[in-house]
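Folding Task

Wanted — backbone structure
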Amino acid sequence: MSVVVNLKSFGILTPLRLHVREIHNRCRIGNRDWVGFGINGSANYKDDPLFPFPAVRFKENTRDVCALREKEKGDWRMLCCEEKKALYRASFCQTYSEFQHPTGQWKIIAGIGIGMTSFTFWIMMLNHYYVFEPLPASCSKTSQKAQLRRMLELRVAPIDGLSSHWDYDNDRWKVALVLALIGMVVANPVPPLGLGLASPILPPVSTVINHGVTIPVVTAPVVRHIVAAPIVTAPYIRTPIYTGYGWGNG
């Protein structure tokens, strides 16, 4: 003897129907009034400022709601404020100010993000002290300096790389020369609007830059000589050229 049991009567659904989203029309709205098109033409309700009129009313038609609807057909001055609010709540769930008000959901998201960040930080600290092996000796500061010195001695990338920034004559970086020029400009500023051809004459003093390099100050004005040479055009002279078939003019 076989017994057929309806799982739906016990509230048990199959796993395939548990995660499937479907569109239901009148079979799920009960006795609510279908009053408009809504969002996509189906019988659904949603508080959305882009679609201010949902397809169905929010509440079902109960006796109290039907009585208020009949009273609504008459003079609205006979309705009190509470009855008007009840009529609105029967058709809509929230007002514009209610469903557009900030929910503060960003606080939960920010808290979860900060918590996950701190969790990963402590995981990395745990791995650093108890899981990862110590770094090799080549990663120490002394070893890195020795490696850098070895690369400079081998002249690695001499054109525009590492060795191009090293002054082999003075055994230092070339950046010191740039700093010296910057210090000279700061110590001897040009007057405002000094756009002439000659630099201003300064007294013969020396300026000591912060890095200890003494740079003499030029006492004589530096004048850019402009040479105006006449433009001479030579006459075009044709020369005979042998082309293989005879002599011709070039």
